[in-house]
Design goal:
With about 400 residues, the chain is of the alpha/beta class. Helices cover about 35% and strands about 20% of the residues. The protein has a seven-stranded mixed beta sheet, sandwiched between helices. The chain has a six-stranded mixed beta sheet with strand order 1-3-2-4-5-6. Strands 12-13-14 form a three-stranded antiparallel beta sheet, with helices on one face.
Length: about 400
């Protein structure tokens, strides 16, 4: 764990969050612009980058009469230490970029002693808001601990089953990207869809979303097949789904690396992907994926964050680091109206106008799940191009 402190003075914007911090981030990035395609952040499937050591926490924290305490719960050890450290470091950058004096951040390691123990410690030390944890099982462990103390949780998970009753999800959910890319495809005249979903929680959520979204969009779902994450299984699934009828487009609800295993078998229909493709910059190396569409958050501001991160920490962050940055921006914005010693003003999280961050505009729906403004991209030989920019806000 590491205590980190700074000061939130972010100015109000149309989306009611610290766009001043984002502007500062962009200006800082303009001074350190990397060469195109230079050292992109590694996807989760690759070896984890070496991360700077996060300082150990203070114990028995003294009272603070001028700042509210905010806990960041992430894994700083174990298998997910690289991702957790990226999130924690980006949270610190956000606090530095906003330059305020009313929030103190302390980072707690959920992999050491468990997430529930980390939450108990955080609440015992006076933290009135929890950012994190990362994993759905950890959110389930933290939620009842936080709920008993009336402390809201803004988690980084993408499992919608853990949202609600004081738990808000910042993570990217498959339904958001599926809705965006299916809507774009419908606008281009495509009406018949198919889907390939991996076995597991993510695939199940993607499949459920696909059924609802295609129906609401006025399309027709020809078929859907699940698969194990290997070449033989996905190719068998494609063979089965092809026997169910003709379709205009097929969604592969997995990483681009997995989609590449079966893409050569798909001839004619448009291939669609999810937000998972955004972490892979070499999709175009697979000829069959060129021209495929997927929806994700814009990388424009994240590229600036990556530059700032590398300058400060000497290594590239994981893509999920943006969740830590944006969660702190959110806490800073609302923290302007958070009286020291009082409960966090949770009602402000449900602002229908939404908020702005590195990953674009977002807001929480009635279930506590982040609705995001996403763009649609097309895979090219050298990377991807934007076909439909992300909306700037919400109506």
């Amino acid at each position: 764990m590491a205590e980190q402190s700074g000061s939130p003075q972010a100015r109000r914007s149309i989306l009611r969050l610290g766009l001043a911090a984002l502007t500062g981030l962009a200006l800082a990035g303009c001074q350190l612009v990397p060469k195109p395609n230079q050292e992109p952040p590694p996807p989760a499937e690759q070896a984890r980058p070496e991360q700077p050591r996060v300082e150990q926490p203070l114990t028995g924290l003294p009272p603070d009469e001028t700042r509210n305490r905010v806990a960041v719960l992430v894994p700083l050890s174990g298998a997910n230490a690289g991702v957790g450290t990226s999130i924690a470091n980006a949270a610190q950058l956000a606090l530095l970029d906003t330059g305020g004096d009313r929030i103190r951040i302390t980072v707690y390691d959920t992999a050491k002693g468990g997430a529930a123990a980390a939450a108990n410690e955080a609440i015992g030390q006076g933290n009135g808001l929890i950012l994190g944890p990362l994993l759905a099982d950890d959110v389930r462990a933290v939620a009842p601990v936080a709920r008993r103390s009336g402390v809201p949780v803004i988690a980084f998970s993408n499992d919608v089953s853990v949202a609600g009753d004081g738990v808000y999800l910042m993570g990217f959910t498959p339904g958001e990207s599926i809705e965006r890319v299916i809507g774009y495809a419908r606008g281009k005249g495509m009406a018949r869809f198919a889907a390939l979903t991996p076995n597991g929680v993510y695939g199940r959520r993607a499949g459920e979303a696909m059924i609802d979204i295609v129906g609401h969009a006025g399309g027709r779902l020809i078929g859907m097949q699940s698969f194990d994450r290997d070449a033989a299984s996905i190719r068998a699934a494609i063979t089965r789904i092809s026997a169910q009828g003709a379709y205009d487009a097929i969604l592969v609800a997995d990483s681009g690396r997995i989609a590449a295993l079966g893409a050569p078998m798909i001839r004619g229909p448009k291939i669609l992907g999810t937000e998972l493709w955004a972490t892979e910059g070499d999709l175009g190396r697979t000829l069959a994926l060129r021209g495929a569409w997927y929806a994700s958050a814009s990388d424009a501001m994240f590229n600036q964050l990556r530059t700032r991160y590398r300058a400060r920490y000497g290594t590239s962050p994981y893509r999920l680091a943006s969740l830590g940055y944006d969660a702190v921006l959110l806490a800073v914005r609302i923290g302007k109206d958070w009286r020291v010693g009082r409960p966090f003003p949770e009602r402000a999280l449900r602002d229908p106008g939404g908020f702005a961050g590195v990953d674009g505009a977002f807001r929480f729906d009635g279930h506590g799940i982040a609705e995001r403004s996403l763009e649609v991209r097309e895979v090219t030989a050298t990377g991807s191009i934007v076909l439909s920019p992300a909306p700037k806000g919400f109506e």
